[in-house]
């Protein structure tokens, strides 16, 4: 099973913000010492600005080393919190999943065809590149539904809005959000139409999302 902590620094920032906020909101209910919550937030607050500096064109080897050390310290506190304080039986599996944690279940569960659909957002990255972000409908969490391998993103650049999803002839299985779509120079100025559906570990797909669009920069 893959690690629950994002590998990329840029993904760890929003993941950590969600994790910290859930812990802080339930400090008393979950029996977590306030000083441990404060240490967790302080480590995050040190890591975030260093991550931004390390991701900038002006980064130096010193900044990168400081960022790596801050990340290691922050992740260490997360693992300690998750492996000890968050094992409290008053915390439900749904709450753990909402924090971005993995729930270990020794009871075999049947993987069914996805019943929900992804909700999409599309943003400009830079020239000819658009970023598609997705989450399960009705949620704000980036966690995929149980048994889902990824989102099948279908897309096409068209002169007019498509009548249905069959007009979106290109597809890719995205296992992480966001997913960047690379366009060609000829597509600049045209409208890119995008939709998606969940695909489970058996290759079965669920219902398609609404079609969204953006102009290729």
Task: Provide keyphrases for this structure.
217 residues; alpha+beta; three-stranded antiparallel sheet; 31% helix
Q: What can you see in these coordinates?
A:
With 217 residues, the chain is an alpha+beta fold. Helix content is 31%, strand content 24%. Strands 4-3-6-7 form a four-stranded antiparallel sheet, with no helix packed on it. Helix 2 packs antiparallel against helix 3 (61-83). The longest helix has 23 residues, at 61-83. It is flat. The mean pLDDT is 90.
Shape: flat
Task: Please tally the helical runs, counting DSSP H or I stretches of 4 or more residues.
Answer: 4
Low-confidence stretches: none
Rounded to the nearest angstrom, the distance between the terminal CA atoms is 38 Å
CATH top level of the largest domain is: Mainly Beta
Number of strands: 7
Main beta-sheet annotation: 4 strands, antiparallel
Return the CATH topology of the largest domain: Immunoglobulin-like
| Corresponding CATH superfamily of the largest domain | Immunoglobulins
- Percentage of residues in strands: 15-25%
Count the domains: 2
Major β-sheet strand ordering = 4-3-6-7
Category from helices, strands and their pairing: alpha+beta
Mean pLDDT: 90
Q: Radius of gyration in whole Å, from Cα?
A: 20 Å
Order of helices and strands: HHHHEEEEEEE
CATH architectural label of the largest domain: Sandwich
